[in-house]
């Protein structure tokens, strides 16, 4: 539209000057100078704005796998932790005793296996000379197999006891920023797969997700652009995005799309999208 407006303005000016030539007026001021610029051609990227929130890529509720009394706590609340850092120590003494008991049971079973193996070894030449009946030989061989199975079973129980002892040290399953402790040292906690006591929560920092909802109309427009080849779908290509925080004047944080949901919410008429941003300085925080 600017070129058209500019051209119309120039035609009106020429007509006015022609009228001035037909009837000159003494002392009339000269016409003002006019600057004319050539129109420029450039590709303009259209942007759509959405409001959303940052969410952590990973969120872990830290719970113990074994029960017991909290012996000590080894982190500062709100600090950044690395994967594998020691967080809590549960009193290990009952589990240490269980490991020692399991190892003793294994040694006892191995001794019985050794005796059964020797009995079978002695019976092998005797069965050929019929000094030992086939039934007696089969009984000794069955006893030896049973003893071997008992050893294997107790070795597995010993490994489980060692694993339980290892689980008395609760370590960070992921790297990120840790929340406050939900229990203090000296408290009895419950471990296991169900009903375990919540100890704390860790959220990852870098990278970070940005989740937003787009309207059904925008979703249809993007789908049609993808169908015509004008713009690839964010389900197939990580299209660029930018975000600004509440106190920032411009969109300075650059990211990329990495997920579009598979359904439109029938209640709100919106579809959920997600972008991912690098967050090496930790400025972007879940919940923004």
Overall shape: elongated
Tell me the CATH topology of the largest domain: Helix Hairpins
Total individual domains: 3
- In sequence order, what are the helices and strands, one letter per element? HEEEEEHHEEEEEHEEE
CATH class of the largest domain: Mainly Alpha
Spell out the CATH superfamily of the largest domain: Helix hairpin bin
CATH architecture of the largest domain: Orthogonal Bundle
Number of strands: 13
Poorly predicted runs are 1-22
Please, could you describe this protein's structure?
This protein is of the alpha+beta class. The protein has 3 domains: about 60 residues, OB fold (Dihydrolipoamide Acetyltransferase, E2P) (Beta Barrel), CATH 2.40.50; about 70 residues, Helix Hairpins (Orthogonal Bundle), CATH 1.10.287; about 70 residues, Efflux pump adaptor protein, beta barrel domain (Elongation Factor Tu (Ef-tu), domain 3), CATH 2.40.30.170. The protein is built from 4 helices and 13 strands. Strands 1-10-13-12-11 form a 5-stranded antiparallel sheet. It has a 4-stranded antiparallel sheet with strand order 2-9-7-4, with no helix packed on it. The longest helix is centred in the middle third of the chain and has 36 residues. The protein is elongated, with a radius of gyration of 39 Å. The N terminus is likely disordered.
């Amino acid at each position: 539209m600017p070129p058209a407006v500019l051209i119309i303005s120039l035609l009106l000016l020429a007509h006015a000057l022609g009228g001035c030539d037909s009837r000159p007026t003494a002392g009339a001021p000269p016409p003002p100078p006019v600057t004319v610029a050539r129109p420029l051609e450039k590709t303009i990227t259209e942007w759509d704005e959405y409001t959303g929130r940052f969410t952590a890529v990973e969120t872990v509720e830290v719970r113990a796998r074994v029960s017991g009394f909290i012996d000590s706590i080894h982190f500062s609340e709100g600090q950044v932790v690395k994967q594998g850092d020691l967080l809590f120590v549960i009193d290990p003494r009952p589990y240490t005793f269980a490991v020692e008991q399991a190892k003793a049971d294994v040694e006892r079973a191995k001794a019985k296996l050794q005796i059964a193996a020797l009995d079978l070894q002695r019976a092998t030449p005797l069965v050929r000379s019929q000094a030992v009946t086939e039934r007696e030989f089969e009984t000794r061989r069955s006893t030896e197999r049973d003893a071997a199975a008992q050893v294997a079973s107790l070795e597995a129980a010993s490994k489980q006891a060692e694993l339980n002892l290892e689980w008395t040290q609760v370590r960070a399953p992921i790297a990120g920023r840790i929340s406050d402790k939900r229990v203090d040292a000296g408290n009895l906690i419950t471990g296991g797969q169900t009903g375990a006591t919540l100890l704390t929560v860790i959220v990852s920092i870098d990278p970070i997700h940005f989740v937003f909802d787009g309207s059904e109309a925008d979703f249809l427009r993007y789908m049609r652009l993808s169908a015509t080849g004008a713009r690839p779908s964010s389900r197939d290509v990580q299209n660029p995005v930018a975000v600004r925080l509440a106190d920032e004047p411009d969109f300075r944080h650059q990211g990329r799309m990495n997920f579009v949901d598979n359904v439109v919410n029938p209640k709100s008429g919106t579809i959920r999208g997600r972008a991912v941003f690098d967050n090496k300085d930790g400025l972007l925080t879940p919940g923004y």
